[in-house]
Predict the 3D structure of the following.
Amino acid sequence: MAAIVRLSSVCRRGVQPLFYQSTLLARPLVVPNKHQEQTYLLTARIHASQGLNASSGSRAASLHWTAERVLSILLLAMGPAAYFHPGPAIDYSLAAALTLHGHWGIGQVLTDYVHGDTKIKIANAGLFLLSTVTFAGLCYFNYNDVGICKAIALLWSK
């Protein structure tokens, strides 16, 4: 027999939310048996974070996940900065951040949908080529034309 406990009901009873804990959250559930009047105590465990004995591969994946989130937040901050203070530093920062963001995003799609050793190697080579050409093109545009910030401002002005 299964029981579902909503996170909001757990939080209202004084248990800290999952995202603020570094250990397992154990929430006892009481399930009545149909044939008897007494209840049985079950324990539901929800993993809120990685275990303490994580291998180096999972640590690298965790750092990569954190870097993706930091880059996303930086991209959100670069929008207003590019609008209020356009310049070469912001242009080249946007070129690097947008290229890296796209590289990581397409890399995740390739991880999910490309299978087979040879296909994965070809897809990764194509991804590196695409990312290199993208970054080089954005840098070329920044150096030889108006730059990313002013180009977007020109698009909005018309």
About this structure: The chain has a mean pLDDT of 78. The longest strand covers residues 25-32.
